Amino acid sequence: MSGPTRSPARNPTLADVAAAAGVSLSTASLAFSGNKPVSEETRERVLAAAGALGYAGPNPLARNLRRGRSGVVGVAVGRLSTAFRDPAALPMLDAVSEVLDAAGLGLLLMPEGDEHAGLPLDAVIYDICGSETWGAYDDLVARGVPLVVVEGPAWAGATYVDVEHRRGAAEVARHLHDLGHRRVATLTLEASHPQREREAGLRDVYPDAELVGPCASDLVAAQRMVGAWWDGGGEASAVVCQSDVQAAGVVLEARRRGLDVPGDLSVAGFDGVATPWLDLELTTVVQPLAEKGRATARAALSRIAGEPVDDVLLPVRMRVGGSTGPASHAT
Fold first, then answer.
1. pLDDT tens track for 259-270
2. Cα distance between the two ends of the chain
3. For 117-127, what is each residue's pLDDT tens digit?
4. Total-model pTM
5. Which of 15, 39, 306, 320 is 20 to 30 Å from 29 by CA-CA measure?
6. What's the domain of life for this entry (predicted)?
7. Can you tell me the distance from the alpha carbon of 88 to that of 189, in angstroms, rounded to the nearest whole number?
8. Mean pLDDT, to the nearest integer, of 295-319?
9. Has residue 23 got a pLDDT over 80?
């Protein structure tokens, strides 16, 4: 078979084989496992692509483990570097690990891509990736791997764990409205379910709020984004951010420009994480990060045991801090 050759940069994966053979990841997986019928023509095409790429097939131990339990739960976290820098992600991952460890299960962090999804996993938690699509989803469904999705897309067959994004954002918006703020901007996250719900909550009170972003939940990125907005003539008496890290960045950039927070500008966030780089406490929506992790892990354990599991929606609360105050003038 001519065409694909093995890349010297890394070992080939089942995803590479599927792409070379022109089939889905789940079809390639089934061609190797033999668990479900795949046409002989398709099987031969997959095996030929595997041979050309130098892919020897699934590990025999992994194949044996799939028949029972591996004792490992995968957590898809997107970019590992981002996951470990996000103060909203760490308490949740810690709580997930605590519950799974108590149940005698290990945890495998799965970075971007789907090459790890073919491993023998008892369940998979789709956590903080942010993406609304995942190439491994079809393969996981085909193999019957239990899936728990956190604040993400409502995929068929998955258990869903979420928080009250919209209600919390609306509560912060009403707080600012009561303080006399009429011209409000919002610094948004990249497109995702939390981003849409938090924006919707703000627009319940401020339908004409100016959109700034999208912006990652990153201190420097938020400073640059809001700075560019101000340089372009942006004006508001309050900026509502969709994460506390963003809000901290806005506060720092405002101060760099000589603006007083909250005297000249009110700033609010979302998550309720510690912001030790600031000398004031943010007004924010506090979400139960550790409880979200525990609920997620408990849902995964129930799914592994074959028990019915309801979706989970956790409450949030607003915390008024020193970053918001009365509008200096109504606009």
1. 999 999 999 999
2. 69
3. 677 889 999 87
4. 0.77
5. 306
6. Bacteria
7. 14
8. 95
9. yes
Residue with tokens 């089942």: 14
At 83, list the tokens: 């996951």
Cβ atoms of 280 and 322 closer than 8 Å: yes
Domains and CATH numbers, the chain: 14-58 (no CATH), 69-163+289-316 (3.40.50.2300), 165-287 (3.40.50.2300)
Q: Which two tokens stand for residue 73?
A: 């739960």
DSSP letter assigned to residue 149: E
Whose CA is closest to 127, among 185, 174, 193, 190? 193
Quick: pLDDT tens for 225-258.
Answer: 999 999 999 999 999 999 999 999 999 999 999 9
Q: Could you tell me how far CA 326 lies from the centroid of its own chain?
A: 34
| Digit-coded pLDDT (tens) for 143-195 | 889 999 999 888 888 999 999 999 999 999 999 999 999 999 999 998 889 99
How far apart, in Å, are the Cα atoms of 293 and each of 90, 163, 296? 10, 12, 5
Residue 114 reports pLDDT greater than 80? no
d(CA 107, CA 293): 13
Return the H-helix or E-strand segment holding 31.
Answer: helix 25-33
Structure tokens at 250: 């806005």
Q: What is the rounded CA–CA span in Å between residue 209 and residue 300?
A: 39
> b or e along 95-134 (b: 16 or more beta carbons within 10 Å of the residue's beta carbon)?
bbbebbeeeebebeebeeebbbbbbbbbbbbbbbbbeeeb
- Structure-token pair, residue 330: 């109504």
- Residue 151: which region, alpha, beta or left (left: phi > 0; alpha: psi -120 to 50)? left
Contact status, residue 199 vs residue 228, Cβ threshold 8 Å: no
